[in-house]
Specification:
The structure holds 2 protein chains of 2 kinds. Chain A is an all-alpha fold. Chain A is built from 21 helices and 2 strands. Helix content of chain A is 75%, strand content 1%. In chain A, a hairpin with a 6-residue loop joins β1 and β2. Chain B folds into 2 domains: 159 residues, 3-Layer(aba) Sandwich (D-Maltodextrin-Binding Protein, domain 2), CATH 3.40.190.150; 125 residues, Periplasmic binding protein-like II (D-Maltodextrin-Binding Protein, domain 2), CATH 3.40.190. The chains are: A mainly alpha, B alpha/beta.
């Protein structure tokens, strides 16, 4: 019954307007690289205290969902992840966009983000409390294996040349060691630069490698090509936003895989949409009938990443609501907002504020449904926007990237880091070094190191603890599978050709 | 056609730039949003009882530099204070995050900014620690403290089914098993790491400190029973005591915490361990007396505002007001004690 009253209180003009407003704000913030969803939510939070708690939360959840979704817009349109959660979206999304099918890619992003969001909301509604308790089984050894599993993906991401992929991947891991030692507190590779105590800022590096690198590449390696559509059929293809039935059939499985992995990774505290989208991309590639298309404009690859990062929202809310454990910055601000509305966050929340939690579920559904029209309309607008001369786009992107890197911390050092990363990104692209492994190393290197060392600290330097739980064993099998898969698939295909 | 498109893109660029600047609540007065904000607040300023109507400060936007990133408690505090200053004093206030080095980046930025009173910042307990930790040459003497209105003590948490019910049981258990008991903290050199060290120091026990990623990481590990105990803040764990997942053996404060009324203090149990995490406000040295007084009074009024008190209570923190002098005294005492402790225990390996 409480769902009925929850629906009643959410479906009021005021509340719906708040969600819509949140979705629009989230879209602006998510699309602009450097402005993260955490930033947007914490800026808006004090303003919502003047509103009714349902209205306030409606706005915040609108921002959260929409920012993660629209991070994919800039990933697709300009190869710059709007938020770290859409790093994996650049792999295929931008390739599709470069073929002139930007609208189509944005359409997929909208549809599958909403799919992932709704999927995770349903999981959240059904199994919030028990799933969150399961997340507590995830200790230091499990985090280590998860990070290692992520690092194993370097193999599948560096599709052109494994050696080149590993070179940049290890470079990424090395860069992740800059900063304070996580367990001893001693300084590593810092010199006298206080700004480096927390390590190399991730977001400026990400914006530089992807966005600036790509734009520099286009500017300096510019080939005179006629971009104009050749006939009416192609023009129509360029203006198409919605996928066909056949395309949906191809994307259904990757979409579901992405959603499931998104929820699972989202539930684990400290991991979120960035990691889940990368893992989903990797898993979908392995089960796909067209793995060769992955990284080269595969609709399956795009759909799985879009679904996955939005599905991680529901997962993150699971642990946040059921245990009061914020898995990331977004949920931390949301929990802070809940306390301001007079609720005690923690394991008692689900019982003591059951009505509010019901309303929250309904808001999640409404927010996702509102993304649908807003996203599809914006896709149409984006096609028009990107049909102008490339030079204008390149300039605008460089400008937006610089502002984004600066606004992270109002620190000019970050802009410099971004441009250094951009120049590096240019050369990586020119000499065909893949970027994915570098980002993986940077993202997971420290997580891998810290948790391995912490495990050894907890066990008194015995490695037994690393192999002691079922989750660890499962993750080890996944790691082995990920590393050995290329050899296995080679062997299978050789056997097949030998047979025929 | 081309011209129209060029117009569209330039307009979109302009719009996105404006939005970007608005979204970061830029302090530059040229942005339309900021000037609009000031306009709307002008009438409120006339209507409100401004305690310092004779002085002209502030004529411009006051910028609060927050040492921690968006999403944390200190960021929420800075934004709450900004909100109350706007509502109550009619000032125009923005918050900027300058993060890194356990808060030293933000605090040093304030220390080196123009001492006109328009740049102030959050002053976390790390102000008393970063010098000893070797992150930055900065201590309470180097800045001008404005007052503090948010604090919460450390507390020792153990799983609900742990074999000890009091701090004494725990200490005895640790003495029987020296070095065996693993205690989680919120990161090496963090205030709760210091808290665990103070406990070990005062109770004369040997424990293994295991750093986690923030208080959240430590709590998650304790709930998952990866670790035997955790020292984090009262407000970071009280809800798990309410839900029956954890026990709190002691809070490290002079009086019992309002969120953990059933948990005795360490002093009650015979151990003189007081570790308080505080977040106050600071300004660079050299701000003129008149402006400084206005800032201090405005913050005092903020800390007594009911919205602010509700904010602290909601988070399980104490909103007791420390005047600039009291705040300085507390920060200086912590500085002396923690510096000694950090170098004695060799907390930071080089």
């Amino acid at each position: 019954m409480s769902y009925l009253t929850a629906i009643q209180s959410v479906f009021t003009p005021g509340c719906l307007l708040c969600v819509l407003l949140g979705v629009l704000v989230g879209m602006v913030v998510g699309t602009l690289p450097g402005l993260t969803s955490v930033m947007a939510i914490s800026l808006i939070t004090p303003l919502t205290f003047k509103l009714d708690s349902t209205y306030g939360f409606a706005m915040l959840l609108g921002v959260y969902n929409s920012a993660i979704f629209s991070g994919g817009i800039s990933a697709i349109a300009i190869n710059t992840p709007g938020t770290p959660a859409s790093i994996a979206t650049t792999f295929d999304g931008y390739k599709i966009s470069r073929r002139g099918k930007t609208g189509f890619a944005l359409g997929i992003n909208t549809l599958y983000s909403v799919f992932g969001g709704l999927f995770s909301t349903i999981v959240l509604m059904i199994a919030c409390a028990p799933l969150a308790r399961l997340a507590l089984n995830f200790g230091s050894p499990e985090y280590f294996w998860l990070a290692l599993f992520g690092l194993c993906m370097m193999i599948s991401i560096s599709h052109a040349s494994l050696a080149k992929g590993l070179i940049v991947g290890i470079l990424g891991m090395l860069l992740s060691t800059v900063g304070l030692d996580p367990l001893l507190g001693s300084k590593r590779f810092i010199g006298n630069n206080t700004a480096l105590l927390d390590g190399i800022a991730f977001i400026p590096v990400m914006i530089g490698l992807f966005g600036v690198g790509e734009m520099l590449f286009q500017i300096f390696e510019h080939k005179k090509e006629d971009d104009a559509p050749r006939d009416i059929a192609e023009l129509k293809e360029r203006e198409r936003v919605l996928p066909t039935k056949a395309e949906h059939r191809r994307m259904a499985v990757p979409g579901i895989i992405g959603s499931i992995i998104g929820v699972i990774v989202g539930i684990i505290p400290g991991t979120g949409g960035d990691i889940s989208a990368l893992i989903s991309w990797d898993v979908s590639k392995r089960v796909s009938r067209h793995p060769e298309e992955f990284g080269d404009g595969s609709v399956e690859g795009l759909a799985t990443t879009c679904a996955s990062n939005n599905a991680s929202i529901g997962g993150a809310l699971t642990t946040a609501l059921a245990l009061g454990i914020p898995g990331d910055g977004n949920t931390a601000v949301l929990l802070g907002a809940l306390t301001m509305y007079g609720m005690v966050t923690g394991p008692t929340l689900l019982n003591n504020s059951a009505d509010f939690v019901c309303r929250l579920y309904i808001i999640m559904i409404v927010a996702n449904l509102l993304i649908l029209p807003v996203g599809l309309l914006s896709a149409k607008a984006c096609i028009k926007l990107l049909s102008i001369k490339n030079q204008y786009i390149q300039m605008a992107v460089l400008m937006i990237c610089s502002i984004g890197a600066y606004s992270m911390n109002r620190n000019f050092m970050d802009v410099i880091i971004m441009f250094i990363a951009g120049i590096a990104g240019f050369f990586f692209r020119k000499y065909d070094y893949p970027l994915g492994p570098l980002i993986l190393g940077l993202l997971l290197g420290k997580m891998c190191e810290t948790n391995l060392r912490r495990t050894l600290m907890l066990s008194g330097s015995s490695v037994k603890m690393l192999f002691s739980t079922p989750i660890s064993i499962l993750l080890i099998i996944l790691c082995l599978f990920a590393t050995l898969w290329p050899f296995i698939s080679d062997w299978i295909s050789k056997k097949k050709t030998a047979e025929s | 056609m081309k011209k129209r498109l060029a117009k569209i893109i330039s307009l979109t660029c302009a719009a996105s730039l404006t939005l970007a600047l608005t979204a970061c609540s830029s302090s530059s007065p040229e942005t339309p949003s900021a000037s609009a904000e000031q306009e709307t607040e002008a009438p409120a300023e006339q209507g409100a009882e401004t305690p310092a109507s004779d002085a002209s400060f502030p004529e411009d936007t006051v910028n609060i530099i927050c040492h921690a990133k968006e999403g944390g408690g200190s960021d929420a505090l800075a934004r709450q204070v900004a909100q109350v200053l706007q509502d109550q004093q009619g000032w125009s206030v923005t918050v900027e995050n300058k993060t890194g080095g356990s808060g030293s980046v933000g605090m040093q930025f304030v220390q080196n900014s123009k001492p006109d009173g328009y740049t102030i910042g959050t002053a976390p307990v790390e102000l008393s620690m970063i010098e000893a930790l070797g992150y930055a040459e900065l201590n309470p003497e180097d800045v001008s403290l404005l007052g503090c209105g948010m604090s919460w003590p450390a507390a020792l948490y153990v799983p609900a089914d742990a074999p000890y019910d009091t701090l004494e049981d725990f200490v005895n258990y640790c003495k029987e098993n020296p070095g065996k008991v693993q205690v989680a903290n919120s990161g090496i050199g963090s205030i709760w790491h210091i808290g665990a060290c103070v406990l070990a120091d005062k109770a004369d026990i040997e424990i293994t400190h295991v750093p986690y990623d923030g208080a959240t990481g430590a709590m998650t590990a304790l709930l998952g029973k990866e670790i035997d105990a955790a020292v984090v803040g009262t407000c970071e764990g009280f809800s798990y005591v309410e839900s029956g997942d954890l026990k709190c053996l002691a809070s490290f404060s002079e009086e019992r915490s309002s969120v953990l009324p059933d948990s005795p203090t360490a002093a009650e149990q015979g151990y003189d361990a007081n570790v308080i995490c505080w977040v106050g406000f600071l300004a660079p040295q050299g701000v003129d007396e008149a402006s400084l007084t206005i800032l201090q009074d405005a913050l005092k009024a903020t800390f007594e505002n009911e919205d602010y008190i509700a904010f602290c209570e909601g988070r399980g923190c104490d909103s007791t007001y420390f005047s600039p002098e009291e705040f300085y005294e507390m920060a200086a005492a912590d500085y002396t004690y923690y510096s000694q402790l950090i170098s004695d225990l060799g907390i930071v390996a080089e």
